[in-house]
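Hey team,

Filing this mostly as a record. A colleague (T.K.) asked me to run one chain through the structure pipeline before their review meeting, and I want the input and output archived in the tracker in case anyone asks later how it was produced. No errors, nothing strange. Just documentation.

Input sequence:
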Amino acid sequence: MEKQTIQAGFNFLFQDNNEKIIHGAAKRLHISRMQTDYDDFIQEGYLAFVQAYARYPASVEDHPQKFRVFAYQAVYWRLLDLLRQTSRLAEKIQFDQESINAQIQSTNDLAFESVYNDQLFQELYHCCTHAEQNFLIDCYVLHLKNGEIADKHHVSRQCVSNLRRSVGNKALACISKNRR
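Output structure:
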């Protein structure tokens, strides 16, 4: 496109409230001002309007109303393409996140199996109370911190510290029993 044509397209855009064409197309596609990328869509609409001005086969000054219909359709299609592209990208990101979560879950399952198959862990697990067993799983399999364990089980951090101490004492007893 020539620089003069582009400038004429922008001049026409800002005459006679022609900006309403862009905002009308955005409204028809339910692009609201509350969206974070609203301004980006409007800017793309401006560019699509100018491109339509350059591509219009007849003289814009002779048929301004027909051009407005032509420009509206061009802006609408461009914004629709951008929405579809954004949607596809969001779906791809969501799919990637789901596959990462599945891999993490798989890794956590393998970690749980390796820890649970450990002989000391099994002995310690079977001689603990239910609360201590939950602590063992949260601490050594899921690698949660004291605060996270307390939040998960709705208990105080002091309670989690007491569980840690009692499990530690039982672990020492299991180790000393195995050495005999």
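Quick notes for T.K.: The CA atoms of residues 9 and 50 lie 5 Å apart. DSSP finds eight helices and no strands in the chain.
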